[in-house]
Every structure is written in C-alpha cells, then in structure tokens.
Design goal:
Layout lengths: L3 E2 L3 E5 L5 H9 L1 H4 L8 H6 L11 E8 L5 E9 L4 E8 L8 H14 L6 E7 L3 H9 L3 E12 L2 E11 H6 L8 H6 L4
Parallel strand pairs: 5-6
Antiparallel strand pairs: 1-2, 2-3, 3-4, 4-5, 6-8, 7-8
Helix pairs in contact: 4-5
C-alpha cells in the first residue's frame, strides 16, 4: 500500500535522512501556528528503518515532491477505533497555496478507504486555520461541528472544527472529486 504516488507527490515511510529537513519544518513558527500539539512525525523519522508495531495503528508518512525528491512535509492517518481514523498533515510554508495539501489529504482518504478499508475518516483543525479547512473540504470531508477548548497547549485553549467523511459518502463522490483515485490505487503517473 506504500508508497503512494499522486500526480506530483510521493507519500512514503520516513527515512533517517529526512530528519534534518523535518526538524527545520517543525521549527518554523508559521507552520506550528495552528498545530498546538507536538508533531509525531519527527519521532517517526528518527525511528525510521525499525519495524513498526504490530498491529500498526498509525501511519506517519513523509511528503516528497516527486520531481525534485525534496521532503516538503509530513502526514498521518491514526486509527481512533477499529475502522475509524484521524487524518493530519503539515507542509513547509514555501509550499503552501500550491494544492499539495489537497493532494496529500486526498491520498490519505484513498489509503484509508482503499487499502485500510476504514468506515470513517475525521480531522480536527484550529478555527483560525482557514486554509486547512478548505483543504479538507476539497478532499471531500465535511464540517461536523465546533469543539470548544478541544485541547490546552502553548498557554491557551484551542477551539477546533471537526471534519469527517464516511466511506459511503466517499463512494458517492464523482470521479473528479476523488481526483487521483486511479493514480493512487495503481501507482501510475497521470
């Protein structure tokens, strides 16, 4: 099921060589602005090459631009129940606004409903993070509600939106909305 190829990106397991680029990414205050909790991606990169726990409950993955081979972010799917998962992602600031976030989110939804056979995928986003809200909507997730004081971190309480998509709803999405489905499932270039 891994790596995942999208039209412009490679989503793969972390390599030890990813650590310096990932450290720079998580050190950027603008990247961390809407991420109250410490990223698990850096720990995953530092553990690269070790066998994952069985059964695996979290997929912490590297986001790489296929053309350059450069790591530009991290993403994850974490099981929250037997057939439910939470989706997350972060990208280096210079790669915001190019559609990479949507491409990654769609790839994770494909992974979840395809290979992992999940029933439901959800995501939490800080209310101030309008860009991430649009990314989730473009990936087919829909707003479900607002959670006040979802988490307390960095000296404040964070209000968050919850977005989700059910497998049945994903199956009804037109092919255009599921954009890279064929690419991701077959690992081909489009």
């Amino acid at each position: 099921m891994l790596p995942i190829l999208t039209p412009r990106l490679l989503v793969r397991e972390f390599l030890v060589e990813d650590v310096p680029a990932l450290e720079a990414l998580v050190a950027d205050p603008r990247v961390r602005e809407h991420a109250p909790l410490e990223s698990r991606a850096l720990d995953a990169a530092r553990r690269a090459g070790r066998a994952p726990r069985n059964p695996r409950r979290t997929w912490e993955l590297a986001v790489v631009v296929r053309r350059s081979g450069r790591l530009i972010g991290a993403c994850d799917l974490a099981l929250t129940g037997p057939r439910d998962a939470d989706l997350g992602y972060m990208l280096a600031r210079r790669h915001w606004g190019h559609g990479y976030g949507t491409e990654v989110a769609r790839a994770l939804v494909e992974l979840g409903f395809g290979s992992l056979r999940l029933r439901r995928i959800s995501a939490i986003v800080a209310i101030e993070n309008e860009r991430s809200r649009r990314v989730l909507e473009n990936a087919g997730l829909r707003w479900e509600g607002l959670t006040r004081r979802h988490v307390r971190a960095l000296g404040r309480s964070w209000d968050c939106h919850r977005y989700a998509i059910e497998r049945a709803g994903w199956l009804r999405l037109p092919a255009l909305r599921r954009g890279a489905r064929r690419t991701i499932m077959r690992g081909e270039d489009e």
